[in-house]
Design brief:
Blueprint (H helix, E strand, L loop, with lengths): L1 E4 H5 L9 H10 L3 E10 L2 E9 L10 H12 L34 E8 L8 H9 L8 H12 L3 E5 H8 L6 E5 L4 E4 L5 E4 L4 E5 L2 E5 L3 E2 L12 E7 L2 H11 L4 H7 L7 H14 L5 E9 L8 E4 H8 L15 H10 L3 E5 L4 E5 L11 H12 L19 H15 L3 E2 L5 E2 L7 E2 L10 E2 L4 H15 L5 E10 L5 E11 L17 H14 L4 E5 L9 E11 L4 E8 L1 H6 L7 E6 H10 L14 E10 L4 H10 L5 E10 L8 E10 L8 H19 L2 E3 L1
Parallel strand pairs: 17-21
Antiparallel strand pairs: 1-3, 2-3, 4-12, 4-13, 5-12, 6-9, 7-8, 9-10, 10-11, 14-16, 15-16, 18-20, 19-20, 21-22, 22-26, 23-24, 24-25, 25-26, 27-29, 27-30, 28-29
Length: 705
């Protein structure tokens, strides 16, 4: 967010005659969304302020001067003559004759240092304070006001040091500046009062071996100016944005100055801003003496031309909304040339080929690098809302790919089991050496790519319980990242989830209980059964799950061809305790790519004819030793149930006072059906009696009436 004073803006570009609503609308449509229009009373007069949300890739627009340039481009407003002139200064910066050393000024494409002496007035002008107040900055009535003013007006951050302190500590009459990387760990106290440990690879600005500042971020408290300061060393520089971001993360330190450098400043108006700063200081210090002591500026600007084709512009932007009954109306060649001029581009145009050769101005060289960028700018200036909106015509309807179909089917399986679909970021904060680290993370908590989906899922369940006190079960499709022994990166899609968070009733007369290990395992088997995949279970040996899954209650799953598929197991009790969730939860994670490939190989399905004859259902209850597995009983019944017996379902299991201690009561449902005839009840009853006899004989069961 950035506050802009319209009075301040009017000093750079003529907005008095412009319609305010139209101006705000053009800014918003041009990518600078106006969040709010404020009206402040400053010095007994009303002043209008706009709150603007600027885009991250436009560092050139983060200032009053930058917004003024945008208005010139968007609305073609008239620039005002500079209300500050450099010829008022005898002091000049001679760029052409500066000596420079690439090694001396490492990670710094532009650097100037000026000494300013004979400062007799420490205060800042009244009008300057009023301007700072209008944009939400509280004036301090010292040199900080000058720094803030230049930062707001031009977008360039300048650093001030007490020159007398530097010379006194260096025990010399000259300032010898150098930018260098730290070699040994050194303690540093910033002008914010905090102490930092500067490790190697931190870039610092030195004067005769004394550290003046962490380059581009924070100055040294020992060299800060005070009310007794009469001479300054002013540093103006543009640092490598990647280096500033890296140092800021390393020290966990971000300042207004470093925030500007991180956005990649250009040097297009830098010298003018430096002159402007010195002129401001000279207002209350007319005897001010300036001296340029060192300077460096790389001349490696990219002056390559961008080819802009009229045909490509019309193909991408389409027809305009201007009414023409004979043909579609396209943006004209003259309009495009006008927009290029308003963007401060220089160009040549071929009327034969309708192609422009465009050279982008330096202050837009970072964000306009291709033809498509220029086309976007043309659309932005013309107004994207002024083009026709229509969907492209298609000759055929799209189709759902195999991956989508499998994902859809698996999602239905998980939803049927009561799980909710979860979505998490791929970035995590991890101390695991096996995880893939990002070279340039935005946040410390997002510096690694996940090598498993489970930690984020556990975190989500914990946060849900903590915030809304609701237990949920969930699953997630997501990508995991890893490296092999040759340091080659791999990205594979997995599916993972968590079960057992919702207590269930096994019978109507019992209280709700958490899932047992075998019940959770049964849910997983049911899902693979629906997918028509056969799996085998083996002991858990995968090390990345050591801290997530219970060491004695975890298994690995394999496909029938011995391909490792994933893991299933109970949550590790330490993890459950740390996240304040139940230890009776069960985790699973499977390789979705392998599942998809296996299903693709098994795409030929076998079908059998549906029987037109009715089914007959018979229930059978008996008491049996509870150590006898139901699968064993079921297999025996199916073996002796004749071809008419097509299903054996377990309806109920009961243990109570009427049942012996070491026994259980099972109620099973027998389903009979023939594909050739209608079955007779008498015939089925004889089969059931035979099954009763076999159950009694083989399992010592007692039939219940």
């Amino acid at each position: 967010m950035m506050r802009i004073s319209l009075n301040w803006l009017n000093q750079l570009v003529d907005i008095e005659t412009a319609n305010l609503e139209y101006l705000l609308e053009k800014l918003t449509l041009g990518g600078f969304e106006v969040e709010e229009l404020l009206e402040l009373k400053i010095d007994n007069r009303k002043e209008k302020i706009i709150d603007i949300s600027a885009t991250a890739n436009r560092a050139d627009s983060l200032s009053i001067k930058g917004i003024a340039k945008e208005l010139v481009s968007l609305i073609n407003l008239k620039k005002k003559e500079k209300y500050y002139l450099t010829d008022k200064l005898k002091f000049k910066i001679d760029i052409e004759n500066l000596s420079s050393s690439k090694d001396f000024f490492l990670d710094c494409p532009l650097f100037y240092a000026v000494t300013v002496e004979n400062l007799t007035n420490f205060n800042s002008p009244y009008w300057l304070k009023q301007k700072l107040f209008s944009v939400g900055i509280i004036p301090q009535n010292n040199f900080l006001d000058y720094q803030n003013y230049i930062l707001v007006e031009t977008g360039y951050p300048f650093e001030f040091y007490d020159l007398t302190k530097i010379l006194k500590k260096s025990k010399t009459s000259e300032v010898n500046l150098a930018l260098d990387l730290m070699v040994n760990k050194t303690k540093f106290i910033g002008n914010n009062g905090f102490e930092y440990l500067l490790d190697k690879e931190v870039l610092v600005l030195k004067s005769n071996e004394n550290i003046l500042s962490i380059a581009g971020i924070l100055s040294n408290k020992d060299f800060s100016y005070t009310k007794k300061t009469h001479s300054l060393l002013i540093e103006g520089a543009i640092y490598n944005p990647q280096k500033i971001r890296k140092t800021s993360r390393l020290l966990n330190l971000r300042t207004d100055r470093s925030a500007r450098y991180e956005k990649s400043l250009t040097d297009s108006d830098f010298i003018e801003a430096f002159y402007r700063l010195i002129l401001l200081l000279k207002i209350l210090n007319p005897q001010l003496i300036c001296k340029l002591i060192t300077g460096h500026q790389k001349n490696d600007k990219n002056n390559s031309l961008i080819e802009l084709n009229y045909k490509n512009i019309n193909n991408i932007l389409g027809s305009t909304k201007e009414i023409n009954f004979d043909q579609k109306t396209q943006i004209s060649v003259a309009q495009i040339s006008n927009y290029l001029t308003r963007l401060n581009c220089t160009y040549t145009f071929s009327e034969k080929t309708l192609i422009w050769q465009v050279k982008v101005p330096n202050f837009r060289s970072d964000d306009i690098t291709r033809e498509i960028d220029l086309i976007e700018e043309i659309g932005r200036l013309y107004g994207f809302n002024a083009f026709m909106t229509c969907l492209p015509k298609t000759n055929r309807i799209g189709w759902k790919d195999f991956s989508y179909e499998i994902r859809k089917k698996m999602t239905a399986c998980f939803l049927n089991e009561g799980l909710n679909e979860l979505i998490n970021y791929s970035f995590i904060k991890s101390t695991d050496n096996n995880s893939v680290q990002l070279l340039n993370p935005l946040l410390i908590d997002s510096k690694n790519l996940r090598n498993t989906l489970l930690p984020n899922i556990i975190q989500t369940i914990s946060e849900t319980v903590k915030q809304i006190n609701i237990n949920i079960e969930g699953f997630e499709f997501g990508h995991v990242f890893s490296t092999d022994k040759h340091f080659q990166y791999k990205e594979v899609e997995f599916v993972a989830g968590i079960l057992g968070n919702i207590p269930l009733k096994r019978t109507w007369s019992e209280n709700s209980n958490s899932l047992s290990w075998f019940e959770a395992k049964g849910k997983i088997e049911d899902i693979f059964h629906k997918l028509n995949l056969s799996i085998t279970w083996k002991t858990l040996n995968t090390k990345i799950y050591d801290q997530l899954i219970h060491p004695y209650r975890g298994t690995e799953l394999y496909l029938n061809n011995e391909i490792y598929l994933g893991v299933f197991g109970q949550i590790h009790p330490i993890i459950a305790q740390n996240f304040n969730i139940s230890s009776q939860l069960f985790l699973f994670e499977f390789n979705f790519e392998l599942i998809k490939n296996e299903l693709k190989r098994n795409k030929f399905l076998s079908f059998k004819a549906y029987s037109l004859y009715p089914k007959i259902f018979k229930d059978l209850s008996f008491i049996v030793d509870k150590n006898i597995a139901f699968e064993k009983i079921k297999s025996m019944i199916m073996l002796n149930g004749t071809p008419y017996l097509i299903q054996v379902n377990l309806l109920d299991e009961y243990q109570g006072k009427l049942i012996p201690t070491f026994c259980t009561s099972l109620c099973i449902q027998l389903v009979f059906q023939s594909s050739q005839k209608t079955l007779v009840t008498k015939e089925i009853e004889e089969i059931v009696k035979n099954i009763e006899t076999i159950v009694i004989k083989n399992f010592n069961a007692e039939i219940r009436v």
